[in-house]
Design goal:
Strand order of the largest sheet: 1-10-8-6-2-3-4-5
Distance between the termini: 79 Å
Number of helices: 16
Radius of gyration: 23 Å
Helix content: 25-40%
Strand content: 15-25%
Length: about 450
């Protein structure tokens, strides 16, 4: 019998001892979400005066991050993210975080072919009797990073659920250099606004497109939550889950008896996800649950994998769209708000699925701090960062309806988008379309 616990003790270090391996100029990875190494982050921040130009990558990290908070001048630590959480967004606004453009299905390839990792620090669940640590709800990104790292440090977090997986959900102690233990606070439940009247109306517009046996990819936020609520009260049944990010919307569907995963063509009987963010109830549901399987995002988000699932329905949000059908989903102007994430992956994959549909959703207007109202359907972007090109857009929805832009010409797109714009802006948008010569004179006003 292998003495895994003896090896565990030989590799056990204090946080301060473990981070002593970091050198000036190193690239350090914190992986993603609940994989944030809380104790190691504090210890690394404590070495501030000894280090220069240590570059750190994270992804959807909740705050605070000690290496950022303790070094606002960025002389010692420079922080980057693959996808902004609300906390990381505030860091970007202050110039304390740099976004890395990406699509999630290429996450593993970035590390395998292009990036160097000197040290990875990742939280894991406690080791089992076979010598494995579970990456838990961080499975989507963790393994490819740890495989490429020169030094692997795991931080054992007693609060992480143990999640079953398709592959790469664990790391063996033989592949770990150092282990850190310590007490951790319970995970906080990220706060998202409750669905309002507009979000519920958008969700109602989507319901007719979702058939029995469909598999859902839901983003996170008020619109996916609204979809979950309405489906839970509907007659739709035998739904499946295949999503990069698992949220409480899926738990609602499961508790309502709607989520069975029986009709999926691949991973039958399993709800597939990459990462998870939500309530303690969500983590309790995922813990040791043979009805779910965590996979790396190179699998979950691969368009060719998504396309194998019949009636795949992808529902994501955006910030704005212009009359040409271009979608800005990750920023407003030059301001980084979130990230590309898997929107493009699922647009391509769901569109290729037999019976599949890909929806981009938004409220028709937004209000500024002074109470002004602005249309989210704009004449033409000018300097905004485009997440999804017009050639990839399928369905687009607001509280005023759903339109299909697949194969549509410029004037057809303009007409369709104006039809779901807020009524207060439609005449103005028609004038803008006419100026751009994408409005037919025969169109009805």
């Amino acid at each position: 019998m292998f003495d895994f616990w003896g090896e565990y003790q030989r590799k056990l270090r204090t946080p301060e001892e473990a981070v002593s391996v970091v050198k000036s100029g190193d690239w350090v990875d914190y992986t993603s979400c609940l994989g944030k190494p809380v104790l190691l982050d504090r210890a690394l921040a404590g070495r501030k005066e000894e280090l220069r130009d240590v570059k750190i990558r994270g992804n959807l990290m909740e705050g605070p991050l000690a290496v950022v908070e303790n070094d606002p001048e960025q002389e010692h630590f420079i922080y980057h993210t693959w996808h902004c959480s609300s906390y990381e967004r505030t860091l970007c606004d202050k110039g304390l975080c740099y976004y890395i453009p990406m699509v999630f299905h290429n996450n593993a390839a970035y590390y395998e072919y292009f990036l160097h990792v000197n040290v990875v620090m990742v939280s894991v669940s406690p080791m089992d009797k076979h010598g494995f640590f579970n990456f838990s709800v961080n499975t989507g990104v963790a393994a490819p990073i740890t495989r490429m790292a020169d030094i692997v440090i795991v931080e054992v977090n007693e609060n992480l659920p143990k999640v079953h997986g398709g592959y790469d959900e664990c790391i063996h102690i033989s592949d770990v250099d150092f282990i850190v233990e310590g007490a951790h606070d319970k995970f906080s439940h990220p706060s998202y606004p409750e669905p309002g009247e507009e979000e519920m109306q958008i969700a109602k517009h989507l319901i007719p497109y979702i058939v029995d046996g469909a598999t859902l990819q839901l983003g996170i936020g008020s619109i996916p939550n609204a979809v979950g609520e309405i489906i839970a009260d509907s007659d739709i049944k035998d739904l499946g889950m295949h999503t990069e990010l698992c949220s409480d919307a899926y738990l609602k569907l499961y508790l309502a008896g709607k989520l069975t995963n029986r009709k999926k063509q691949i991973d039958r009987g399993k709800g597939v996800f990459g990462c998870a963010v939500g309530s303690q109830e969500l983590y309790d549901w995922l813990d040791d649950n043979h009805g779910v399987a965590a996979y790396p995002l190179e699998y979950v988000n691969r368009p060719s994998v998504i396309a194998q699932i019949d009636n795949m329905v992808s529902i994501n949000g955006c910030v704005a769209v212009d009359l040409y059908g271009q979608v800005a989903a990750e920023g407003s102007g030059a301001r980084q708000i979130s990230g590309t994430g898997g929107q493009l992956d699922f647009l391509v994959g769901a569109s290729a699925s037999r019976g599949g549909k890909a929806f981009i959703c938004m409220k028709s207007v937004h209000h500024d701090r002074n109470g002004g109202i602005h249309s989210r359907i704009r004449p033409q972007f000018n300097g905004d960062i485009i997440t999804s090109p017009r050639s990839q857009i399928y369905f687009l929805a607001t509280e005023y309806g759903v339109v299909n832009l697949e194969g549509r010409s410029t004037w057809e797109r303009a007409e369709a988008l104006i039809s779901i714009a807020h009524p207060a802006f439609r005449e103005e948008l028609i004038r803008e379309a006419e100026e751009r010569k994408i409005w037919r004179r025969s169109n009805k006003r």
